[in-house]
Automatic annotation (TrEMBL):
<keyword id="KW-0548">Nucleotidyltransferase</keyword>
<feature type="active site">
    <location>
        <position position="221"/>
    </location>
</feature>
<keyword id="KW-0067">ATP-binding</keyword>
<dbReference type="GO" id="GO:0005524">
    <property type="term" value="F:ATP binding"/>
</dbReference>
<feature type="binding site">
    <location>
        <position position="87"/>
    </location>
    <ligand>
        <name>ATP</name>
    </ligand>
</feature>
<dbReference type="InterPro" id="IPR026287">
    <property type="entry name" value="SoFic-like"/>
</dbReference>
<dbReference type="InterPro" id="IPR025758">
    <property type="entry name" value="Fic/DOC_N"/>
</dbReference>
<feature type="binding site">
    <location>
        <position position="221"/>
    </location>
    <ligand>
        <name>ATP</name>
    </ligand>
</feature>
<feature type="binding site">
    <location>
        <begin position="225"/>
        <end position="232"/>
    </location>
    <ligand>
        <name>ATP</name>
    </ligand>
</feature>
<dbReference type="Pfam" id="PF02661">
    <property type="entry name" value="Fic"/>
</dbReference>
<keyword id="KW-0808">Transferase</keyword>
<dbReference type="InterPro" id="IPR003812">
    <property type="entry name" value="Fido"/>
</dbReference>
<protein>
    <submittedName>
        <fullName>Adenosine monophosphate-protein transferase SoFic</fullName>
        <ecNumber>2.7.7.-</ecNumber>
    </submittedName>
</protein>
<dbReference type="GO" id="GO:0016779">
    <property type="term" value="F:nucleotidyltransferase activity"/>
</dbReference>
<feature type="domain" description="Fido">
    <location>
        <begin position="134"/>
        <end position="285"/>
    </location>
</feature>
<feature type="binding site">
    <location>
        <begin position="226"/>
        <end position="232"/>
    </location>
    <ligand>
        <name>ATP</name>
    </ligand>
</feature>
<dbReference type="Pfam" id="PF13784">
    <property type="entry name" value="Fic_N"/>
</dbReference>
Length: 389
């Protein structure tokens, strides 16, 4: 493709002026799919088949887990932490798990609320997919969940922006921005074109479609805040909606974070040079990398659970059933109090306390507060499986 064909392929810059007379260039994306159409060369083809294969394998390996939903919940939390870290919050997976053990704790850090909101947005979106296709309406609902009652809530949760925004180093002016997305009156038409593309039954392989949609969404930048997070959630929702994945287990936040500059450069080059294929290669490499990692995590969970079930069977003659019950509970809530253990097993305080103490002696749980009262216990081996990133 020659450069004349590509430099307007993704859209064009429109000169705009603010009332003070200052000029800037806002970008107007062309509707998808790209024209001239995607050139699927050997490299792209190989990446596409590999991504399809590893994603299929990931989907299958989740099915082999005894409690796939437990894995999914941990995964969603990890994604929430990573995704919120890209945005600049500082909570760790440990903070989130600890806060969940004490849901009503008044000293729950604000950053954790943001992460918990991300989990809520994910769950809301997945539940809504039963009744509503991935659409502008769903995108707005997810945005409303994501920014409800947190920093940024003044930024109109669930509403597309009515003012011009821009991307650039902190404090930069509109005219010095790295990128200025479409003017506010163009957001409606841009989003409805995107929705049309989503619902058009094209022959485009799904992963390419998802990659195109993510990049286009980031270019439209329809909200004042949270565009990165909503755009990453869209990837997961589309894969679940089209049943490539039975469970929401593909998250690219870690990959985008690790290759942040390349990620931004690829998006910018699509706009400036129409290089959709290069972006898609970057995207597919991410799908391959994170699918492999997630399959490996699933495999390790399976063997960890087997090993710990065995230890419990050998060491708990009478209370093995409660031990197994608590063990399974730990896969959803890996930091617990004795009260949590009571709730999970149905045992009264004394046997639940004995159970937790015995699991601590056996090295399955670790007490993390160092206090004699209000103790918290962590299922360290499990949590550390999610430590990457
Ligand atoms: N040239 C660019 N430089 C930086 N980010 C860009 C660029 N182009 C698009 N983006 C997108 O903008 C997103 C950030 O937008 P916004 O701050 O609204 O989202 P967020 O969810 O609050 O942040 P984050 O994505 O950092 O978590 C990035 O994740 C990226 O997808």
């Amino acid at each position: 493709m020659d450069s004349k064909q590509t430099d307007r392929r993704a859209g064009r810059y429109l000169m705009q002026t603010v009332p003070s007379g200052e000029g800037y260039r806002a970008f107007m994306p062309e509707p998808l799919p790209p024209s001239p159409k995607l050139e699927i060369d050997d490299d792209l083809q190989v990446l596409l088949s590999q991504a399809d294969r590893v994603l299929g394998r990931l989907d299958g390996s989740i099915e082999t887990l005894p409690h796939p939903d437990l894995f999914v919940m941990m995964y969603v939390r990890k994604e929430a932490v990573l995704s919120s870290q890209i945005e600049g919050t500082q909570s760790s997976l440990q903070d989130v798990l600890a806060a969940e053990a004490e849901v009503l704790s008044p000293d729950r850090p604000k950053d954790v609320v943001e992460v918990v909101n991300y989990v809520a947005a994910m769950n809301h979106g997945l539940a809504r997919l039963e009744a509503l296709p991935v659409s502008v309406r769903l995108i707005r609902e997810i945005h409303a969940e994501l920014l409800a009652n947190v920093r940024g809530s003044h930024l109109t949760p669930g509403e597309v922006r009515t003012s011009q925004n821009w991307i650039g180093p902190a404090g930069c002016t509109l005219s010095a921005a790295a990128f200025v997305p479409p003017p506010p009156h163009e957001i409606g038409p841009c989003l409805s074109n995107l929705e049309k593309f989503l619902h058009t039954d094209s022959k485009l392989p799904l992963l390419l479609k998802v990659g195109l949609v993510h990049a286009q969404f980031e270019t439209i930048h329809p909200f004042l805040d949270g565009n990165g997070r909503v755009g990453r959630l869209l990837i997961t929702f589309l894969l679940c909606e089209r049943e490539v994945l039975q469970k929401p287990v593909l998250y690219l936040s870690y990959y985008f974070k690790k290759h942040r500059q390349e990620y931004y450069d690829c998006l910018q080059s699509v706009r400036d040079n129409g290089t959709w294929e290069e972006w898609l290669k970057f995207f597919l490499r991410g799908v391959i990398e994170v699918s492999k990692q997630a399959s490996e995590t699933a495999r390790r969970i399976l063997s960890l659970r087997e090993a710990h079930r065995q230890i419990i069977t050998e060491n708990f003659s009478r209370s093995a059933a409660n031990g197994h019950r608590l063990l399974d509970h730990l896969y959803t809530q890996p930091i617990i109090t004795v009260k949590n253990a009571q709730d999970a097993t149905g045992a009264s305080y004394k046997p639940a306390n004995d159970l937790v103490n015995r699991m601590t002696e056996l090295g399955i749980l670790y007490e993390i507060t160092g206090h004699a009262r209000n103790r918290k216990f962590k299922y360290e081996d499990y949590v550390s499986l999610f430590d990457d990133g």
